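Milestone M4 deliverable, item 7.
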Amino acid sequence: MAPYVSRYQAVSQFGQLKAKVLGTRFYSAPVDGSIPAAKRKYIPTSGTYPRGFKVSGTIVGVKPKNTTKPDLAFITSDTPCAAAAVFTKNKFQAAPVTFSRALLQERNNSGIRGVLINSGCANAVTGRGGLEDAQAMGAEADRILADSKATIVMSTGVIGQRLPIQKILSNVSKAYEGLGDTHKHWLTCATAICTTDTFPKLISRKFTLPSSPSVEYSIAGTTKGAGMIHPNMATLLGVIATDAPISPAVIHPALKYAADRSFNSITIDGDTSTNDTVALLANGAAGGKTVTTEDSADFNAFRDVVTDFAIDLAKLIVRDGEGATKFVTIRVTESSSEEGARKIASTIARSPLVKTALYGKDANWGRILCATGYSLISEPGEPINEVAEITPEKTSVSFIPTDGSRELKLLVNGEPEAVDEARAAEILKHEDLEILVRLGTGTKAATYWTCDYSHEYITINGDYRT
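Output delivered:
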């Protein structure tokens, strides 16, 4: 008698067989490096880029088998920039994080000319040698730029392996020679930082500031991330550049505010990585009045521009979640505190049961309510969490369709609704979905963005190194 094979074993075996025979996966990047048809709509065909910045993407072959994909990104400014960065809070912080944080502190967020990024190897948990490699990357870029202590570095890829540092160092000059300011240059640069991403993530736009309404500024940014995504930060890298005149004294507060509402409000799988870094550079090349204080109208306007921009970049990461088939917005409203609302939204967003139900198009709202109910429970030994109040008889849960039709109420003031399962299934067929939780205890709110869990997530991460 043949051995019993469960439905899940059968699905897994079929997926593995399909990958071997056809060289494809269901929801991840095709093995030939092409971009899935459903993701092409997120790639811009043109852009408007900040003055004074030049970028490139170069094929180095950090992974020996890579001979076709750019894997060394170089972002430079003709003049020194005010610069800031936010980093992972993981205790095992990668060498590039340690190096770049120390450099920005030493330079007081000023005098930065470049960012050098490799994909394919994270240079994380690599000891003293890894830090020396990060320093060598920065030093070689400085030499090429004819500047000193002016380059921060980033790395992304497999943890626990040393960089092929000589291979990288010998190609920095090539990366410099390839610099340019066209849309093609920016898109190639965005491609160079990708790992399991299925598409390069690049956005650009224009804006103005109150004190200089006649001056048109540009902002552009690229980010990468598809798995090991959860604050603070997620396993992502990002660089945002602008030609607006922002002083070193205020650039970090602007970025921190933006990051908390964007990159720190997304989750794919609940894992916080070792390398996460998002940097903001401003060279002032467009002119106008320099933003020097946090209590000015210019600062507030700039901070809001960066925040909206960062939110759009962060959403692209969620849309590219490993194996993801859905983009899910989770809004928690009517909370007694913003902190509590964020924790509840975060808990729902990373619940495996919620995420698998969404993948299965199952309107299992009990899982949403369950995650809400345990989100504020304190761990043993921790003080009682009083950041928000959850009152079952005041709590409501709804699906908000993305086609503009009326919301589907699942729970109203603690009482279950007679759910139209057919309509629920129709709503869950769409790629985009919003889950709304009303607590009924206050006026504060928070939003998180997440995706579903598919069989493909296991496949991708089960053979990530092999």
